[in-house]
Amino acid sequence: MKTIFFSMLFSLCLLLANAQQDSMSKKKPVPVVPGGKYCVVLNGSKPEVTQDGKPVKAEVQLQNGNKITPNGTVVKKDGTIQLIKPGSCVNTEGNEVDQAVK
């Protein structure tokens, strides 16, 4: 009886862990729009990433493998984190560019 109980308990734990993994894996970065650039602006006192003046709502994967989060953080391929200063822009290759340049 104990064996059956523990087997069912173990199976339930595996099922719950697998369900958690599936929901986490669905959150994938948004594909990059070629030729675009991502600029950080201040929305009140909070930094916000925009593309062509529209706010970015999800993480974006750049062509060089880096990711930009909606709050202006760049997560590089090696795991290091860099903040983009308000008023600065990053192109799709991951290079910092001037706002006036496309």
List keywords for this structure.
single chain, 102 residues, alpha+beta, five-stranded antiparallel β-sheet, four-stranded antiparallel β-sheet, 1 helix, elongated
List the helices and strands and how they pair.
Elements: H1 2-25, E1 37-43, E2 46-51, E3 54-55, E4 60-61, E5 67-68, E6 73-75, E7 81-83, E8 89-91, E9 96-97
Strand order of the largest sheet: 3-2-1-8-9
What structural category characterises the helix and strand content?
alpha+beta
Taking the alpha carbons of the first and last residues, their distance comes to 70 Å
Strand content: 25-35%
What is the typical, i.e. mean, pLDDT?
Answer: 78
The number of helical segments is 1
Poorly predicted runs of 5 or more residues: none
Sketch the major β-sheet.
5 strands, antiparallel
Round the Cα radius of gyration to an integer and report it.
Answer: 20 Å
Helix content: 10-25%
Dominant shape: elongated
Q: What letter string, H or E per element, gives the SSE order?
A: HEEEEEEEEE
Number of strands: 9
Characterise the protein shown here.
The protein is an alpha+beta fold and 102 residues long. The chain is built from one helix and nine strands; from the N terminus they run αβββββββββ. The longest helix is centred in the N-terminal third of the chain and has 24 residues, at 2-25. The strands form two sheets. The protein has a five-stranded antiparallel β-sheet, with no helix packed on it. It has a domain at 37-97. β4 (60-61) and β5 (67-68) form a beta hairpin.
